[in-house]
């Protein structure tokens, strides 16, 4: 019989995540828009929204130790960090990364599709949760159980592809009182709804939501890493 390996020399592998890219840019959306922000884009997504602008993150990527991710983020010298995808929560160790980034004293946000459970996300993180409209082709993936978990620290986002999408989202906001839970954002899907159309609809209905355009796209179009 082989002798047991002494416990002091057993080394567990460091927790890792598959990463598509890490880059410094301006935050283009939500309540930290305009701040210099480090984006950590995790690889992989179980959804296929018809308007997706980050399909390059569905596959590929490189494995990073979480220690190295945190160090790389800190080396950028800014306090805001956004963990995004793909769908970052599709990798279970994303929860570890979020906690470690918070422990490092950073202002952390998570961009998630709303299709996966957000209950275990560190409460120090601002959860930016999508609600998928019929026009996204992924409405059936909405995890409605997430909504009662949200607090004033979190945010909800609708990307609207048509007037029908707008009316659907308007009724969701009203019926569920989402504006009384946290900030609700309405965004136009590029080339499907014009910004002016959406702005006029919101004003006409006196809807208690915030209009937003993607600042980074106005500056750099769809250039990856910007």
Polypeptide structure, described:
With 226 residues, this protein is α/β, with parallel strands linked by helices. It has one domain: Aldolase class I (TIM Barrel), CATH 3.20.20.70. The protein is 23% helix and 23% strand. The chain contains five helices and nine strands; from the N terminus they run βββαβαβββαβαβα. The protein has a nine-stranded mixed beta sheet. Strand 4, helix 2 and strand 5 form a beta-alpha-beta unit. The longest helix has 14 residues. The termini are far apart. The relative contact order is 0.15. The N terminus is likely disordered.
CATH class: Alpha Beta
What's the domain count?
1
Biggest β-sheet strands, sense, barrel: 9 strands, mixed
In CATH terms, what is the fold-level topology?
TIM Barrel
Computed structural class: alpha/beta
- Spans of at least 5 consecutive residues whose pLDDT stays below 50 are 1-12
- Which bin fits the share of residues in helices? 10-25%
The CATH architecture term is Alpha-Beta Barrel
Number of strands: 9
Continuous helix count: 5
CATH superfamily: Aldolase class I
Radius of gyration, in angstroms, nearest whole number: 19 Å
**Strand order in the largest sheet:** 3-1-2-4-5-6-7-8-9
List the helices and strands in order: EEEHEHEEEHEHEH
**What general form does the structure show?**
globular
